[in-house]
Structure formats: C-alpha cells, structure tokens
Design brief:
Length: 299
C-alpha cells in the first residue's frame, strides 16, 4: 500500500511538471509571436470642450528602432489606413545608446510626415542624447535637424495651437528633469515645475499634454491637462488578467499607469504599450500597439 501511495504521488508530480513544461513552452511561443507583431487599439475620448466633428489622432511611442517589414511598410500601412488628422509621438523612437544608429527611427518618422502632421515630444532616450551631445556623437542634433526639415514638429517644452474639424487644440510637449526617470529614488515632478517649463494649461482650447513618463500623471492632472498621452513602460512587459502590468523595463512592480485609458476627473490619460522593445525583448500578453484616439464631443 505504501508503495502504491508513493507511486501515485510520483505520478501526480510528473503530471504537474508536464503541465508546467507545456505552459512554459506556450508562453515562450507567445512571447516570440508578440515581439514580431502589433495591433491597432482604438479609444474614444469625449469632452464638453469638443463641439466639432470627430478628430482622429494616432499615438505612437517606444519604437526603439523596431522595423516591421522592409522600411516599416507593415506599420506605415496600418497607420495610413486609419486616416489620422495628426500623429502624436510620445518619445523613445530611437535607442539612446552609443554606437546605435537612429536610421530606422528617422526613416520611419520621415515617412509619417507624408501622411499627416506629426508632433513629437521626446522620451528619456532622446533627452539623454540631447543633454549629453558629445557622449553620443551629436546624433540627436542631426536626427532632429533632418526630421524638422520634413516638417516634423518637435515639442521640447513648448506648445502649438491647431484647429481640426471645428475644434481648437493646444498640444504641449513636456521634458521633465532627467532625474524624473531614475529607477529608484526618482525626482517627483510637480505642477509648478510643469508650469515653469511650458506655462499654464489652456482653458480656451482642448489641452493635450504629450509627456513620456506616466509616473507623474498626478502632476499632469493637477496642471489640468484635458488629455495626457504617455508611453515609457512598454505596457509592463508582462500583463496578467485583472492585475494588468506586472513589471516594467524600469523594474517598477504593478505600475498604476502602464497601458490603457484612464478617466479621472476632468483628465483622460492614455498610456501606449509601445510599438517596440530594447534591452529586454520580452512581452507576454502585452502585444505592441498603434493607438488611435477618436476625439468627440459628449452627446
């Protein structure tokens, strides 16, 4: 009898190990699939300030030189198909690393400018190259110069006002102090700092704030942005049902704002899960995405 019990227990252990092995293989296959594809995610944003016809924005972030097909044709086709009024870039299109060419990102963003107006706010990768030009062979300067020549509008702590479909939009791009990206004791951005850098939020028009790092959403809300668009966390690398993001590339556990739409008070925040990877090419239940924002007035 003891031998039978021992045999039964061994069989149960083998079954459990087999299930774990199969699950591990399936997860690996899913990760491989996800880093080679992307999806298009649609969000509807409503506000009483919007009274005209629907305006459509495409939001992109965290490409990190990723290429989908020759010259990024797959990605460009998906974006063109949406017929956007404008494209909002929330940073980290290139890789801020010594010796890494920005060519894939540059070619892609140049192609975007042929679709519609492009508004580009920097992420931490662009910002560190910009703030330390000698360390990166002045790559950012050339990158910005070439894209600006193609009419890409860089919003480095500045704002522009544009009208689409009967509605007036103020689009502001925020660069936070670089310490605001620290992995451990990071600098907590305040409303006063935002105001010091880009002035007060617009009251007369619909205020969009492009701010790469969603860690500081509370300050963006206090600044009274109508819409905040961010990226940075890559959706949290691994996402679980009901829990959302588990851990970010910056090693933040269960981040509050990681990917999706968040409606809180008068501010809507949309965080892109990004369209690429770098350093840690891991995604699980977290497909890269092109985000489409349908801007509408409340019925």
């Amino acid at each position: 009898m003891k031998e039978d019990k021992g045999t039964d227990m061994e069989r149960e252990i083998v079954k459990v190990l087999e299930i774990i092995a199969v699950a591990a293989v399936l997860c690996i296959l899913e990760m491989i699939r996800e880093i080679h594809t992307f999806k298009v995610t649609h969000y509807t944003v409503t506000a009483p300030k919007l009274v005209g016809e629907e305006t459509k924005f495409v939001l992109l972030s965290d490409l990190h030189n990723k290429v989908y097909g020759k010259h990024n044709k797959r990605l460009l086709y998906a974006i063109t198909k949406q017929r956007p009024d404008a494209i909002l870039i929330a940073g980290d299109m290139l890789v801020g690393k010594k010796g890494v060419s920005p060519k894939p990102a540059m070619e892609f963003v140049k192609s975007l400018a042929n679709i519609c107006p492009v508004f580009y706010a920097n992420g931490n990768h662009e910002q560190r190259m910009k703030e330390n030009p000698a360390n990166y062979s002045h790559v950012y300067e050339r990158y910005k110069k070439e894209l600006s020549a193609e009419q890409v509008i860089f919003l480095e702590n500045r704002s522009v006002v544009r009208e689409w479909n009967g509605d007036l939009f103020t689009i502001s791009g925020l660069e936070i102090p670089y310490e605001g990206y620290a992995k451990r004791k990071y600098h907590k951005v305040t409303e006063a700092e935002i105001e010091q850098r880009i002035g007060k939020a617009s009251r007369a028009s619909y205020q969009i704030l492009i701010a790469h790092n969603p860690s500081h959403v509370p300050a963006y809300k206090e600044w009274k942005a109508d819409l905040v668009v961010s990226g940075h966390f890559h959706g949290g690398l691994v996402r679980l049902p009901f829990l959302g993001a588990v851990i970010t590339p910056q090693l933040k556990i269960f981040p509050r704002y990681s990917g999706g739409i968040y409606r809180e008070g008068q501010t809507t925040t949309v965080v892109s899960r990004g369209i690429g990877e770098h350093t840690i090419p891991v995604r699980l239940f977290n497909t890269p995405e092109v985000v489409v924002l349908h801007m509408k007035g409340r019925q």
